[in-house]
Specification:
By secondary structure, this protein is α+β, with helices and mostly antiparallel strands. The chain is built from twelve helices and eight strands. The chain folds into two domains: 172 residues, Glutaredoxin; 110 residues, no CATH class. Helix 3 crosses helix 4, helix 4 packs across helix 7 and helix 7 crosses helix 10.
Amino acid sequence: MRSAWKNTHADNGCYGLRLRCLLRGGLLRAADTTATESATVTLRCSACRCCQCYVAETPNFRVHCCSSAERFRELAEACERSKTRTQTMWLGDNSANWQPCCEAIVHATVGAYCRTLGPGSERTSGCSTVRLDKGRVAERRIDLRSDAEGWLTESLPHELTHVVLADRFTERRIPAWADEGIAMLAESPDKLQRRLNELRGVMSAGRTVSLRQLVSLENGPTPEFRASFYGQSVTLTGLLMERGTPEQFVRFVEAGQRDGYEKALRDIYGVESWSTLESEWRTFAASQKLRKLAQHSLLEAKSDQRVSVMERKMTVMAD
């Protein structure tokens, strides 16, 4: 079985499937290995003409960017911590290193980002690419725009969540609503509030779809459903998370794909009908409970200020 998909992260809800991107290689010279309590980071200078480009290698990532060496190490360590936290929460195990590792490419400008990802990508701030081959993950990749607001604190954890979830869904890709719903919970409370506000506007206009329709969307929304897709996906995920655990949610998605979601609702959550779930969902969407489910944090809470400074001051040269 072969499969490739790409998730894109944007405020306007751009979701799509594309073919894999080709990684631009570069000759490397010099190396510096630093062991930290989080991960061992090997920092290499690249042959880029700007003379400020580095490739940072950790057990699970190869990060490509133009920046100062110290900030580059922090970025690579943040990737490792975010992976560990996400795997522990949703898959329950973070012991195995990724093979192949995840390529993380930080583009300096929207132009460089679009040259790699193609037309339409200018509306996004991050993109994850996963390729499956015969039941295993054969490629992991994240592209980020460092000129986009929140690329480090919003886009990176969102896209990394997509890559982590692929480890569990290697035979059949995770459905779009669950993939995006989980990934959006990696965002900040403020970002989730904006999504809630957008959803409430769509609900007031009567432009939502039924939850039965939502979970039937295997490959993302059709154009007419795009406006409601993201808000409904994250609030349905939040509602089910309030009812149970991350492990239950993942089992629910797997059971829904295998046996149908109506049976999975009864078996895992004790919900007897779609109408009952719809009623609970509308109450949840009208509340502020979603903000409390946000799992946003690249670093520990005590280091939040350091992440903000790193994002603002990271010196990035054009590709």
